[in-house]
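Quick one:
INPUT:
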């Protein structure tokens, strides 16, 4: 009988370099820390990174040497929104690019939830959009000035790419609707009161606490960690299967018929997108 040649997972030394322009990765004793960044500073949103994330989750999840994952940002901002990514109106994008954007937006969250079978900790290090990357983690902690802000509705676009979906499932549909329509800031203390996060810490203590939690999780047997994560993440799997495609399709349809485009509307709230003016 001919021996079958198995194709193994990509090694840490390969994928940590592959995604280094978007994600800075370190690993110690089975704990992998993944930090969003742009040029070594706070992450500024780009379509290149948007695509890279979903591929990175797959590679990280297939590596058996990863046993707990921490996701955080760099510096004093979580994610800096950039209105200029919409310099070309979505309705003017080529048809194939629109289709690719739909699939990439789905995989960004799906791969985080379905491809990673280890405990996850989100550590939101400051204000910024797209906090769903951290709130989808098993444990989420944040700084006092974190800003759980969904700019879509105020920018003239239905909130369908995951931010509202996570709020609906964490704080309830009525509260989530209020924050979607008003764009009101949810800071760290409010997020704690609403049950979005479990701890609020000074920025300098955030990552040390994330590592402390990860090391505590590592004390359990490997099978216990994996299967506990499977139980804990199941509600997110159900939510993504039930609603993510539906919500995203509504958002992208509206963008595809929006003759004005979102650029000028988003520029009016640029202070919020840059992590400033978060009253």
């Amino acid at each position: 009988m001919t021996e079958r040649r198995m194709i193994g997972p990509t090694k840490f030394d390969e994928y940590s370099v592959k995604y280094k322009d978007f994600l800075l990765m370190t690993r110690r004793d089975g704990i992998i820390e993944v930090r969003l960044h742009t040029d070594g500073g706070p992450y500024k949103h780009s379509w290149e990174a948007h695509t890279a994330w979903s591929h990175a989750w797959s590679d990280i999840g297939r590596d058996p040497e990863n046993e707990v994952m921490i996701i955080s940002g760099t510096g004093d901002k979580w994610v800096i929104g950039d209105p200029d990514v919409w310099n070309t109106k979505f309705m003017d994008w080529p048809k194939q690019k629109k289709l690719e954007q739909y699939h990439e937006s789905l995989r960004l969250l799906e791969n985080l939830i379905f491809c990673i079978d280890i405990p996850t900790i989100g550590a939101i290090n400051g204000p910024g959009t797209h906090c769903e990357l951290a709130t989808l983690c098993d444990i989420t902690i944040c700084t006092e000035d974190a800003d759980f802000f969904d700019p879509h509705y105020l920018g003239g676009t239905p909130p369908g790419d995951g931010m509202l979906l996570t709020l609906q499932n964490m704080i309830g549909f009525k509260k989530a609707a209020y924050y979607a329509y008003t764009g009101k800031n949810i800071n760290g203390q409010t997020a704690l009161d609403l049950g979005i996060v479990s701890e609020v810490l000074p920025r300098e203590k955030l990552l040390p606490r994330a590592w402390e939690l990860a090391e505590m999780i590592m004390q359990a047997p490997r099978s216990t960690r994996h299967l506990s994560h499977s139980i804990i993440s199941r509600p997110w799997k159900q939510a993504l299967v039930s609603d993510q495609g539906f919500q995203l399709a509504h958002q992208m349809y509206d963008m595809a018929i929006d003759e004005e485009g979102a650029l000028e509307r988003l520029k009016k709230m640029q202070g919020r997108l840059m992590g400033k003016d978060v009253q």
